[in-house]
Amino acid sequence: MKRRSVLAWIAACLAAPRVAAQARTRRVHVLFTAPPDDSEPIRGALLKGLQEFGWDPGRNLLVESHYAQGREDLTAGALVRAAPDVIVAVGPAAAVAIKNVGPTIPVVFVVVFEPIGLGLAKSLARPGGSFTGISTAVPETFFSKQLDLLKEAAPRLTRLAVLINPRNPMHAGSRDRRLKGVSENGLEAVEVQASVREELEPAFREAVRRRAGAMLVGGDPLTTSNAELIAELALRHGLPTMFLFSKNVVAGGLMSYGANTLDLSRRGAGHVNRILKGAKPADLPIEQPTKFDLVINLRTAKALGLAIPQSLLLRADEVIE
Fold first, then answer.
1. Are strands 86-90 and 107-112 parallel, antiparallel or unpaired?
2. CA distance 75 to 28
3. Which sign, positive or negative, has the C-alpha torsion 233, 218, 220, 77?
4. Which range (130-144, 148-162, 217-231, 269-283) has the least confidence?
5. Whole-number average pLDDT of the chain
C-alpha cells in the first residue's frame, strides 16, 4: 500500500505541470485600424467565435484591443513588444504595420483583401511564415461582380469614379488593377483620391467635374468612419455608389456587395483557436469568404431617380426601404 501511495504521489507531481500549463491564461491582442465604435461588431464576432471554442475571457483568455486610428506603425511596435500568444490584425493597414515590425509571434489577419499581394504570405494553401487568416475577397471574380451589379442598378452608366485612399496599402497595391478592371468592364475609369475626411468632398466634386456617373468606394477605415458624410455627398452630387461594406448602405449609400465581415471574424477565431492549441500559422491555409452580401438602399435609389430592377432586388440579402 505504501509503495502504491508513493507511486500515486509521484504521478500526481508529474501531472501537475501539465495541468497548470493547460490552465494558463492565454493572451490575444487585437489591432484595429478603425475607431472603437466602428470596430465593435467585428470585435464582438471574434470574441463570440473564441467562446464557441471554449476560450472564456476572464477565465482562460485575456483579450486586449488596440485602436491605431492612423498610427498603425507605432501601435504595432508596442503590441509586438508586449509578446502575446497571438496577434489578430483587422484590416490591411494593421496587418502590414505588424509585418513591418517583423514579429515571430503568430498573427491572424481578418478583413484583408489580398494577403499575397501585400506580402503577408507565400500562398493561400501554405502561408509559410508567421501570418495566416481570412481573406475578404476572391480577386479573380469579385471586382467584376461589383461592377456588374452597379451597372444593373444604373444601366446608363458609362464613366465610373474610383475613390482611392493612397495611404491604404491595399488601395495603393491594387490601384492599377482596379482601374484596368473598370475599363475591361466597358466603363471609363475616373480616379479620385482621399486620405482624410477633409478630402472627401473635393473628391466628389472632382468626380462630377470629370462627368462620372457613379462612384466605386473601396473598403477603408476612412470610408466606414465617414459613412454618413459619404452618403450625403453622393446624394448631393447625384452619384450612385457601390461599397464593400453594408454599413455604408445603412448610412444612406446606394448598394454594397462584399464578404460578410462578421462571418470572417468568427472564422478568424478558428485560426486563433488552432494556434493556441499548438498549430503553426505557416501550416494553416488562408481561407477565403464563403458568404457575400448584397445590400440595396431603395430610399436612396428613389432619391437618385433610379428604378432598381426587380430581378436585382430579389437577389439582395437586404433591401432598405
1. parallel
2. 15
3. negative
4. 130-144
5. 89
Task: Tell me which amino acid residue 297 is.
Answer: N
pLDDT tens readout for residues 16-34 = 444 444 468 999 999 998 8
pLDDT in tens, 64-106: 999 987 788 778 999 999 999 999 999 888 999 999 998 799 9
User: Which residue is it, cell 482621399?
Assistant: 194
Nearest to 87, CA basis, from 69, 70, 59, 68? 68
SS3 letters across the chain: CHHHHHHHHHHHHHHHHHHHHHHCCEEEEEEECCCHHHHHHHHHHHHHHHHHCCCCECCCEEEEEEECCCCHHHHHHHHHHCCCCEEEEECHHHHHHHHHHCCCCCEEEEEECCCCCCCCCCCCCCCCCCEEEEECCCCCCHHHHHHHHHHHHCCCCCEEEEEECCCCHHHHHHHHHHHHHHHHCCCEEEEEECCCHHHHHHHHHHHHHCCCCEEEECCCHHHHHCHHHHHHHHHHCCCCEEECCHHHHHCCCCEEEEECHHHHHHHHHHHHHHHHCCCCHHHCCCECCCCEEEEEEHHHHHHCCCCCCHHHHHHCCEEEC
Amino acid at 85: D
Q: Which domains does the chain have, with CATH numbers?
A: 24-137+260-291 (3.40.50.2300), 142-259+293-320 (3.40.50.2300)
Is the pLDDT assigned to residue 171 strictly greater than 80?
Answer: no
- Model pTM above 0.90: no
Residue labelled with grid coordinates 476560450: 55
Phi/psi at 183 (5° precision) = -65, -40
